[in-house]
């Protein structure tokens, strides 16, 4: 069985573990950087990217996460996890892991509707994916190596760069496992 770690410092961790196990893989809550050695793929969950970054620094995780990304093992960032992966964040001088050649804008779907669900077409994966957005970021710009997988309301909301996958929404909050299955197949 494939072992998938979910960065377990903050955010929607349990839901990802359940989705991984629903797909027949083993889910591991990652709380220590040493656990990165045990896993075949990594999920960076949604939550609050600034809080997550603070905890990443507290537990001295950042360099190991960058090394994991460079190793070529698959990573999937959802919502705040997508922000952690981006090379550029609008209005911020510093990135976090910075492994994906994209620019993201945080909280960019408007304040009046902090969260919503919309059916989204994900290229080659789903015609009608129920995408749940919660104070979601969107992808403003993509580099040459980045493939756009989905758009919603004219904004890019899912991308892939080699073995790195990212989306603005929360696939783990629905019963639809197609995106997680796609991720598992990258391993
Ligand atoms: N707004 C959050 C951030 O900027 C992301 C929201 C989420 O992960 N649901 O980190």
Explained architecture:
This protein is α/β, with parallel strands linked by helices and 187 residues long. The protein has a single domain, classed as Rossmann fold (3-Layer(aba) Sandwich), CATH 3.40.50. It is 22% helix and 36% strand. Strand 10 and strand 11 form a beta hairpin. It is globular. The model has no long low-confidence stretch (mean pLDDT 96).
- Unreliable segments (pLDDT under 50, ≥5 consecutive)? none
Separation of the first and last Cα atoms? 11 Å
H/E element string? EHEEHHEHEEEEEEEEH
Considering the protein shown, what is the CATH homologous superfamily?
Class I glutamine amidotransferase (GATase) domain
Judged by helices, strands and strand pairing, the structural class is alpha/beta
Largest β sheet strand count, sense and barrel closure: 7 strands, mixed
Give a list of the ligands: glutamine
Number of domains: 1
Number of strands: 12
Percent of residues in helices: 10-25%
CATH class: Alpha Beta
CATH fold label: Rossmann fold
Give a summary of the structure in a few sentences.
With 187 residues, this protein is an alpha/beta fold. The chain has five helices and twelve strands. The chain has a single domain, classed as Class I glutamine amidotransferase (GATase) domain (Rossmann fold).
């Amino acid at each position: 069985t494939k072992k998938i770690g979910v960065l377990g410092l903050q955010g929607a961790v349990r839901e990802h573990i359940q989705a991984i196990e629903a797909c027949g893989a083993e889910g591991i809550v990652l709380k220590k950087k040493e656990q990165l050695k045990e896993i075949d793929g990594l999920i960076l969950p949604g939550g609050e990217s600034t809080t997550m970054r603070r905890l990443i620094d507290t537990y001295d995780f950042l360099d190991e996460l960058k090394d994991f990304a460079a190793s070529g093992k698959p990573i999937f960032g959802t919502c705040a996890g997508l922000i952690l992966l981006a090379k550029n964040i609008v209005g911020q001088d510093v990135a976090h892991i910075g492994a994906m050649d994209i620019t993201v804008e945080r909280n960019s779907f408007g304040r009046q509707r902090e969260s919503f669900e919309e059916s989204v077409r994900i290229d080659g994966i789903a015609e009608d994916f129920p995408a749940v957005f919660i104070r979601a970021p969107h992808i403003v710009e993509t580099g040459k190596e980045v493939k756009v997988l989905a758009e919603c309301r004219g904004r890019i909301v899912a991308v892939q760069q080699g073995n790195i996958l990212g989306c603005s929404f929360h696939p783990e909050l629905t019963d639809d496992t197609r995106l997680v299955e796609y991720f598992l197949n990258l391993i």
